Amino acid sequence: MIKLLEARGVGKRFGGLTALSDVSLTINKGEVYGLIGPNGAGKTTFFNVLTGAYIPDDGEFVFNGTELPTGKPHLVVQQGIARTFQNIRLFGQLTALENVMAGHHIRTKAGLWGILIQSKHAIEEERLTTERAFELLKYVGIERFAHTICKSLSYGDQRRLEIARALASEPQLLALDEPAAGMNATETGQLKVLIEQIRRDGITVLLIEHDVKLVMGLCDRVAVLDFGKKIAEDVPAVVQKNDAVISAYLGGPKHAH
Ligand SMILES: Nc1ncnc2c1ncn2[C@@H]1O[C@H](COP(=O)(O)OP(=O)(O)OP(=O)(O)O)[C@@H](O)[C@H]1O
Question: Ligand 1 centroid to 244 CA: how many Å?
């Protein structure tokens, strides 16, 4: 197995509150890795320190053998980590296609000057970006909405669009923060198929999700956070039976039943 991401003793505090404490975990290339835990356990904070939105107080992340920069989201994307957000963050007034194109610009080279002077290179790059954005919309199943203003898309389609936009940055690791939130059972089923396809296409997935059935059916391994600490990490079938995990979710010791 090849290590893709290692979190080493990661800690994050907000004033007196310890949101993450000494969290270490390893994600291997090609895995779908689940991060679960009760509300407020620190899952989104983990995403935020990983992707550079917050600076961790302790520890570091090593990606492909290199330490990741902290507090620099665009550099993290350039290194090959893309994320979606729990509260969808799309450009509401732009079309679906334009949103995906915005996600790709981190990989283009012409820059603002090239676009302004409409250099041959910039024009060609823009054409390829548009083509790629269409492909990605098709990949996530919403190409029919390419020219629709994104805020008028259904919630489920906006979540798919967020995934397309993240994929546009050509990540090796795709971090999804509650991608099934607000989806009905059919949409969740389709999302599962999409994530399985993403894995088959060689992209490693880190998934925060409350839908336990989805997590257990999709993830190769799962880590459980509780009050900012990792309390378990294993294959889903083992994690499900872990006493500490059951107590964390039920808010008390395990009862015989
Ligand atoms: N910017 C912040 N400032 C202060 N406290 C924060 C901040 N972000 C998170 N927290 C606190 O850190 C703790 C962990 O929050 P976090 O959002 O990471 O949990 P979570 O596991 O993602 O929860 P949920 O499942 O509800 O989204 C919570 O107690 C939260 O209130």
Answer: 21
Q: Using CA atoms of 46, 50, 55, 61 in order, give the dihedral in degrees to the nearest 10.
A: 110
How many residues are listed for the chain in this entry? 257
Reported ipTM: the value is 0.95
Angle between helices 96-104 and 120-139 (to 10 degrees): 120
The answer, yes or no, to whether any atom of ligand 1 lies below 6 A from the CB of 177, is no
Measured by CA distance, the residue closest to atom 26 of ligand 1 is 39
Residues 156 and 175 occupy one common structural domain:
no
- Pairing type for strands 32-36 and 229-234 reads unpaired
Angle in degrees, CA 67, 31, 97, rounded to 5:
85
End-of-domain residue from the set 135, 170, 205: 170
Instruction: Tell me the per-residue pLDDT of 163-217, one tens digit each, with 9 for 90 and over.
Output: 999 999 999 999 999 999 888 999 999 999 999 999 999 999 999 998 888 999 9
Answer yes or no: do 161 and 219 share one domain.
Answer: no
Phi/psi at 231 (5° precision)? -105, -10
CB 45 near ligand 1, within 6 Å = yes
Cβ proximity of 77 and 106 under 8 Å:
yes
Report which ligand 1 atom has the smallest distance to the Cα of 86.
Answer: 27
